[in-house]
Amino acid sequence: MSLLFAMFSFSLAMSISPGPVNMVILSSGANYGVRKTFSFVSGGTIGFTSLLLFIGLGFYKVIDLYPLLLKYLAISGSLFIVYMGYLIASSKPKLDINEQNLPTFMQGFLLQWLNPKAWIASVSGVSLFSVPENNQVFLTFLLIYFLVCYLSLFSWSVLGDKVTILLSNQLRLNLFNQLMGGLLIVTACFLLYSQFN
């Protein structure tokens, strides 16, 4: 029972804490609502779970052999996060927004695979909850993480949707989009900076 609690706690801490994916979901929830953000939430959850599975099936051994691989992934991921931040910050401050800028399933999926936080969470999770002679432990962890991640990301979309009460005019919505996009870009710059220091 304590192992299940540890798996749940780890999954919750890593999924609910602010990060690039959660910021995009918050912004999308505020701009488009929960229902239209659900595709991105699903992409983020499935993207992360597939990354966790990929690492759990042995890719961490490749990372041990080629440590620069994580550095290159962090750089490309940071650039993708800057791009997502730009899209959010430059989105039109309309309350009736066209769906052309709506974050997609594929963007959520890719953002997880290019997100340094997701890689760190996956490698840490595999090292903590993977037993070589017992795949059942890892599969249990994978299932718990999937459920907790889905609920956590979904809660960010609900929070974004509820924030619209404060964003009832175009000026406030524009400022919110610029703030969220700016936070994503600052996060990406910090990740890039940390790769070179």
Automatic annotation (TrEMBL):
Domain of life, source organism: Bacteria
InterPro entries (UniProt xref): LeuE-type (IPR001123)
Gene Ontology molecular-function annotations: amino acid transmembrane transporter activity
Keyword annotations: Cell membrane, Membrane, Transmembrane, Transmembrane helix
Name used for this protein in its record: Transporter, LysE family
Membrane topology: Multi-pass membrane protein
GO CC term (a single one): plasma membrane
Subcellular location: Cell membrane
TM annotation in the entry: 39-60, 72-89, 109-131, 138-159, 179-196
Entry's Gene Ontology BP terms: cysteine export across plasma membrane
Pfam families, per database record: LysE (PF01810)
